[in-house]
Write a structure and sequence with these properties.
The protein has 164 residues and is mainly α. 70% of the residues lie in helices and 4% in strands. Helix 2 packs across helix 3 and helix 6 crosses helix 7. It binds zinc ion.
Length: 164
C-alpha cells in the first residue's frame, strides 16, 4: 500500500493527488489536491458526462474547433497517429468509410478535382493505356487482332522509353 499523504503535505510537495478519507460514495482512493474530488468519482462523472447529449455536443464542439483540429493534426502526423490511421484504413470499417466518402458529393468533388489535375490526367491516361493494352494482348478474346496488339505494344515500349 502506498504511503498516505495529507492534502496539506501534497500542496507542500506540489503533488496533484493526496490520500483523503473514503468519499461519500465509499471509494477508497486518492483525491485531487486542487478540488478535493475523489479520483474515482471524477472518472465516473466524466464518463457519465461524455455519454450525455451535453457531453457529446461539447466533444463535437471541441473536435471541430481550432484546438481540436490542431490536436488531431498533431496526432495524425505522430508515429502513433500514422499507425492508428493505417490500421483503420485497412479495417473493414475503414473500407466502408472510404466507400461512403467516395460516394458522397464531397468525395465525388475531390475525385473530379484530382482527375482534372495534371497529376490525375497523367495517371488516368496511363491507366487507360494499360487497360487498352491488356485487352489487346488478351488472346482469348473473340476480337483478338495480332496486328493491333503488336502496334499497341510497340507504342507502349516507346512511351516507356520516353519515361526513362
Ligand atoms: Zn468517490
Amino acid at each position: 500500500m502506498k504511503k498516505k499523504i495529507s492534502r496539506a503535505k501534497a500542496i507542500e510537495l506540489g503533488l496533484t493527488r493526496y490520500t483523503g478519507r473514503p468519499c461519500r460514495r465509499g471509494h477508497i482512493c486518492e483525491r485531487y489536491t486542487f478540488s478535493c474530488t475523489c479520483v474515482e468519482c471524477a472518472r465516473n462523472s466524466h464518463s457519465r458526462f461524455d455519454k450525455s447529449p451535453k457531453g457529446r455536443k461539447a466533444r463535437r464542439r471541441y473536435n471541430t474547433g481550432p484546438n481540436g483540429v490542431e490536436a488531431h493534426r498533431r496526432y495524425a502526423v505522430s508515429p502513433k497517429g500514422i499507425e492508428a490511421h493505417r490500421r483503420y484504413d485497412d479495417s473493414p470499417k475503414g473500407h466502408e468509410t472510404d466507400r461512403r466518402y467516395k460516394d458522397s458529393p464531397k468525395g465525388q468533388e475531390a475525385k473530379h478535382r484530382y482527375d482534372s489535375s495534371p497529376k490525375g490526367l497523367e495517371r488516368n491516361r496511363d491507366a487507360r493505356h494499360e487497360r487498352l493494352l491488356e485487352r489487346a494482348l488478351d488472346t482469348t478474346r473473340d476480337d483478338f487482332n495480332p496486328a493491333r496488339a503488336a502496334l499497341l505494344l510497340a507504342h507502349a515500349y516507346q512511351r516507356e522509353e520516353y519515361c526513362l
